[in-house]
Amino acid sequence: MSIRAAVLRSPGDVRVEDVELDPPQGGEVLVRVAAAGVCHSDLHLVDGVLGEGRWPMVLGHEGAGVVEAIGPDVDRVAVGDRVVLCWVPSCRKCAACRAGRPTLCVPAAAASLAGTLLDGTSRLRLPDGTSLQHGLMSACLAERTVVPAAGAIPLPDGLPLWQAALLGCGVMTGFGAVRNVARVEPGESVVVIGLGGVGLQVLAAAKLAGAAPIVAVDRDAAKLELALGRGADAAVDTSQEKRPVRALRTLTDGGADHAFEVVGLPETMLLAWKSLRPGATAVVIGIAAKGAELSLPALELSIDKGIRGSFYGSGDPAADLPELARLATRGELDLAGVVTHRDALDGVGAAFERLRRGEGARTVLVLDEALAYT
Ligand SMILES: [Zn+2]
Ligand SMILES: [Zn+2]
After folding, report:
1. pTM of the model
2. How close is the Cα of 33 to the center of ligand 1, in Å?
């Protein structure tokens, strides 16, 4: 079938155009996309900083919709199911999956990097026959997409799909880092560096965990305002504050119990490290450009400080996503409030420009008006 999609033709060249989508094969489903968020990793792909050869590609990996058809050997989802897309459809068989680390699933990572589905092939092509990559096995900045069945997680009723879309990347990533990696406890101090779409979810999860104080750090005053309105106890504007480390240590009574870096730059990773108290660990969520290196004051390792990464929430999205959806339907997790812009698919270029300028939190593109608000 022919669908409209946001296609990365080459670095910097994103076009909304008609592409061909083949039917789902064994273990795959066809999803009519209701809405999709525009994530910073999409921008990294557009800018070509995640490595060579990742184009041409249909972008998008934070989406929700309705299952329209299923291929052979699919039993976990059915036609008509409302689903959120999960961009690591883990195999449940490889060494990482058996070790309880499904977000590090080996075959899922290989297919994702190759831009294919799990069988190593693509269902997408340009009208001239050129094969297209599936962005993070989701390719949901498009009217429809074919994904592995494990990448379509059924949703409970009561959560509008334009909000549910956010669960699939930003919320899973932010909440997972707080709950599965840092395991924030009530009364612990938290520093969040970078208050974009994911950083705001880190803040929300820390708030829900009872953290205090929570200090938001950004160079954009509007984002800090948003963070203060959503429960941050203090804000540090690094475009104004000349000594951010001292400010953070003062605000956290000598050093934070947890610091989350949600930017992807060595400087902000170092700031996260320096804001910690002895014995604390920084969690890096931001995705650095390929080749970037981080240098740390090594002596501080001797006071039990640590730094570690987190990938897609480092938990089990198949279990975590429905639980996050239930939190949202109960009103304990506000999704609508982090969406600063809503637009049609044609607004994708403007959304990338805002991300590049560091302006606004999340843009959600509505692919299907009728479905998105159900
Ligand atoms: Zn993302
Ligand atoms: Zn696996």
Report:
1. 0.94
2. 16
| Residue 179 DSSP class | I
**Ligand showing the shortest atom-to-Cα distance for residue 362:** 1
- Residues making up the chain, counted from first to last: 374
Ligand 2 centroid from CA 315, angstroms: 13
Residue 82 CB neighbours (<10 A): 23
Of 29, 3, 34, give the one whose Cα is nearest residue 16: 3
Determine how β-strand 214-218 pairs with β-strand 234-237.
parallel
Q: Which ligand ends up closest to the CA of 141?
A: 1
Ligand nearest to the CA of 99: 2
Taking residues 222-249, report their average pLDDT: 97
Q: In a 10 Å sphere around its CB, with 0-12 CB exposed, 13-18 middle and 19+ buried, how is residue 298 labelled?
A: exposed
Closest ligand to Cα 37: 1
List Cα–Cα distances, 263 to 268, 271, 288, in angstroms: 7, 11, 8
Q: Tell me how far the alpha carbon of residue 41 lies from the centroid of ligand 1, in angstroms.
A: 5
Q: Please report which residue ranges of 118-256 form alpha helices under DSSP H.
A: 161-164, 170-176, 197-208, 221-229, 244-251
The alpha carbon of 151 and the centre of ligand 2 are apart by a number of angstroms equal to 13
> Distance from the CA of 36 to the center of ligand 2, in angstroms?
26
pLDDT cut 90: percent of the chain above it: 96
What whole-number distance in Å separates Cα of residue 81 and Cα of residue 86?
Answer: 15
Query: In the predicted model, what is the mean pLDDT of residues 222-241?
Result: 96
At 44-93, the pLDDT tens digits run 999 998 888 999 999 999 999 999 999 999 999 999 999 999 999 999 99
Tell me the residue type at 211. Answer: A
Count CB-CB contacts under 10 A for residue 350. Answer: 13
Ligand 2 geometric centre to CA of 154 (Å): 20
Query: What does the pLDDT read at residue 246?
Result: 98
